[in-house]
Amino acid sequence: MGLGLANTLSLTELGWKPFFQQQLTLDEWEQVKPALVTGQHRSQLELLTEQGKQILPLLPDMPSMVIGDWVLLDDAGGFNRLLDRLSLFSRKAAGSKVAAQNIAANVDTVFVVSSLNSNFSLNRIERYLALAHEAGVEPVVVLTKADQCDDPQGYVQQVRALDNMLMVEAVNGLDVDSVSVLSHWCGVGKTVAFLGSSGVGKSTLINTLSGQAEQETAAIREQDSRGRHTTTARSLHFMPDGGMLLDTPGMRELQLADCERGVEETFAEVAELAAQCRFSDCQHQSEPGCMIQKAIKQGDLDQRRLDNYLKLLREQAFNGATLAEKRSKDRDFSKMVRSVMSEAQQRKKGL
Ligand SMILES: Nc1nc2c(ncn2[C@@H]2O[C@H](COP(=O)(O)OP(=O)(O)OP(=O)(O)O)[C@@H](O)[C@H]2O)c(=O)[nH]1
Ligand SMILES: [Mg+2]
Ligand SMILES: [Zn+2]
C-alpha cells in the first residue's frame, strides 16, 4: 500500500460517503471512529482511519469482512460494528470447495481486464460483466497489450458489440499516456477493482496509474499467453492525486453463483427476446415461435452469445443451489450440536 499519502487522507478521500454517514446516530458519530478495511490476513485486518494505519485482530464473533468495508471502532480502537455495504463482489470459491467468497466491498468501478493476445475471450468478458452487474458496480472493459496487437480497434468493436452502452478502452499498460484514458474513473475517494485472468496486466496498470512500482509483475508464458499468478493477495493502492486501486490475483476459474440478475443484465437483449418466445418454457433450441432462433437465423444474434447466456444461467443456478444446500446442512448441524449440548447440560444437572 502507498504509505506516503495514506497517513494524511481524510474520510472523503478514503471513499466515505453519505450512505455510510447516514448509518450513524449523532451519539455514535461522537463516540466511534470510521475505519476502512485495506488489507486482509488470516487473523487480522489492516485498517485505515483519518489518523493512519491500524491493525484489527479478528475474533470468532465478528462478521466476515472484506477489503473496502467500513467498520466503526470504539475509543480504545476495538471493533464496534460493520456498516452496510453499497456493493459487494462475491463468487463461488475456487475448486471443489462449497462456499461463497467475498472479493471486495464498496467498489465504485470494476475494470474487467483482458489482454489482446491469444487469451482474449468474449465468453470470459461476459462472465466478469455478469459479476459486476450482479454487484451493482459499473464495469469498464480494459483491453491491455494494445501495443502488441495489429488491430486493437477491431477488438474494441467486438466488445462494444456486446452492449453499445459498455465502456471499452484499449491501452498499453506500460505507457503513462496510454493509460491516462482510465484516469476518469480513478478520482478522489473512488475505488476501482481490477479483475481478470493471470498475466493480463492488472498489476502493471496499477503501477503505471499510481506512478509507483509497488506491485510485482511477471512475464507470461509464451506458448499459451497465460500468466503465472504473480499477485497472490488482494491489496489496495493509493494514487498520488487521490483514488484507490484494488489489485486482485488472477482468477483460475471464476464460477458464478446466485447471479441471475447479473446474467440477465449482461445479456439484456437475449433476455428480452426470450421473453417474447411463444412458449414461456422455451429452451430456445427448435421450438416454433422462438424469437431467439429467429434472431440467430436473421444474423441479429450470435450463437456464441446464446450459448454463453444459457451456460452462465445454468451455472449460477447450480452453484446457488449447492450453496443453499450447504447452508441448510450447516444450520441443521449446528442445531444438532446445540441440542446435544443442552441434553448433556441437562444430564449434568440431573434433570
Ligand atoms: N507490451 C505490454 N506488456 C504488458 C502490458 N501489460 C502488461 N504487460 C506485461 O505482461 C506481463 C504480466 O503482467 P502483470 O501485470 O504481472 O499481470 P497480472 O494481471 O497482474 O497477473 P497476476 O498477478 O498473475 O494476476 C508483465 O510482463 C507485463 O510487463 C501491455 O499493455 N503491453
Ligand atoms: Mg498481478
Ligand atoms: Zn425461445
Condensed summary:
This protein is 34% helix and 20% strand. With 351 residues, the protein is α/β, with parallel strands linked by helices. A hairpin with a 5-residue loop joins strand 12 (235-238) and strand 13.
Write up this protein.
The protein has about 350 residues and is of the alpha/beta class. The protein is about 35% helix and about 20% strand. The protein has helices spanning about 5, 20, 25-30, 120-135, 150-160, 175-180, 200-210, 260-265, 270-275, 290-295, 305-350, and strands at about 35-40, 45-50, 50-55, 70-75, 80, 90, 100-105, 110-115, 140-145, 165-170, 190-195, 235-240, 245. The strands form three sheets. A six-stranded mixed sheet has the order 10-9-8-11-13-12, with helices on both faces. Strands 3-2-1-4-5 form a five-stranded antiparallel sheet. Strands 6-7 form a two-stranded antiparallel ribbon. Helix 4 (about 120-135) packs across helix 8. The site of guanosine-5'-triphosphate (GTP) has 25 residues, from helix 7. Guanosine-5'-triphosphate binds near residues 172, 173 and 201.
